[in-house]
Automatic annotation (TrEMBL):
It comes from Caulobacter sp. 602-2. Keywords: FAD, Flavoprotein, Monooxygenase, Oxidoreductase. This is FAD-dependent monooxygenase. It comes from the Bacteria. One of its GO terms (molecular function) is monooxygenase activity. Its cofactor is FAD. Pfam families: FAD_binding_3. The lineage of its organism: Bacteria, Pseudomonadati, Pseudomonadota, Alphaproteobacteria, Caulobacterales.
Amino acid sequence: MTKLKIGIVGCGVGGMAAALALARKGCAVTLLEAFEQPRPVGSGLLLQPTGLAALRALRLEDAVRAAGAPVQELIGHDSHGRRVMALDYADWRPGAHGVGIHRAALFDALHAPLAPAGVEVVTGARITRLEDAARPVLHDEAGRSFGPFDIVLVADGSASTLRGALKPRARAPVYPWGAVWTNIADPDDRFAGALRQVYHRAEVMCGALPVGLGPDGEENCTAVFWSVPVADMDAFLAGDFARWRDQRLAPLWPGLAQALAGRNDWAGFSRAIYRDVSVGRWDVGACALIGDAAHGTSPQLGQGANLALMDAAELAERLAATPSPAALKGWQADRRRHVGLYQLASKALTPLFQSRGWFWPAVRTFGFTPMSRLPGIKQLGVLLLTGTLRLGRFPRITRP
């Protein structure tokens, strides 16, 4: 590959994966991060076979598997004990599974090889302006300039500050529901092997995801989440923890409430807020959006990190074959044929699991749940779960 000079804004999953993949292809990569100390945000996530294939291309799959925990099933019940969802990876491929992992462990796996690969990481660089999309220069709030670059990738997440500069008509409204997350120890493996969820109508969703190593290296951790309307989040976290645990969580999921019995307050909980990102084409001149900055959506399908990893791995392959900004057009067109399916499915599913009133829970109970068990529909659900539903063939680099 011609030694392209590439600037990447954002030290999240997509930004770091792209930086590593491109540096290893011979590019001169500068990764610009707003915070003085880059850090992961949130708790657990579920890596699918597609995301694991991208990590294999980055030579990180073994390290990530060692840090995470295998997940063979997704199981969901409502507050009446009725089964809402049951998806088994073995229905896609015998022996297949996902990997639950703490965001800190994935962050460390991606961050550690950056410097050895030759990536220049600049921290404390909050980029506020992009000049000249054809030969881009980046400016931060301290008045510093970086570039010019041959290509700039904007990977600063669903709340991107640069997206509007590239795509003025882009929309990224906040979803009405967010979540609070924490980690618990699970020495007896009570939550092992599956992503488990419990729903109360569509107003509450709680879940437990085994993630392996915790943020400080502790073993047998499980990430726990509870959905909360964004408008109520401050009041929720200012409320009485014990009352929530004993009066709201325990009736829905006694075992999970018991696992939190040693907690006295909300210490250790983090917030998660999601956006519905719609931008059309991701590229403008020599610039492109990548990861959640391009296609953030609700977490119903849990695909955010996987899609960002695939964005990065497939872009590096494209630029290896065509080392110029012209490669961005074909890359984003191909990726949008994959990502668009997940954006559409997430929008369709979100009201069934996170909304107010009786209508959407009734649709879920009497329509979605029975249909999801039919052979053809069940296979479609498994393809969605594994990340393998795609228009067109998978590139070799991300083929599970």
